[in-house]
Amino acid sequence: MPYNIDNRVNGYIVSGDGPQLGWLIALEAEYLNVDKAGESGLVAGDEYGWIGGVVGASVEFPKLAGFTNSTVFSAELSAHRDVVGNRDAVLGTVAANFFLSEIGTTSIRFGYSKGRDFRKFEDIDEFSVNLTVSF
Q: What is the pTM of this model?
């Protein structure tokens, strides 16, 4: 995967001493025909034609409140419209990542999500704690 730390493309290392701002804008289109819905909120036999996108922002602090590694706070909003079935799905997420390693390969993430996930069409209202190890 290509990376460029200075332009914050696919990298977690903060370049500089001050806060680093990041952003995300993505447009998405997805069509699916459900054969087996399983445990999701989807309905077998239904068709979905999702059009929408994701916007997000983050701020990364090299050293915050005594932590020796970077800390990242982020917020993201996903909004999609099912043009086939006339349905909406909006999901908001806020998170705090605390990196446990200097090069950003290990982190603990605290997050909160509320809304509806368009891929499963389920309502979400949850707190999460994740440990991430990259290698």
A: 0.76
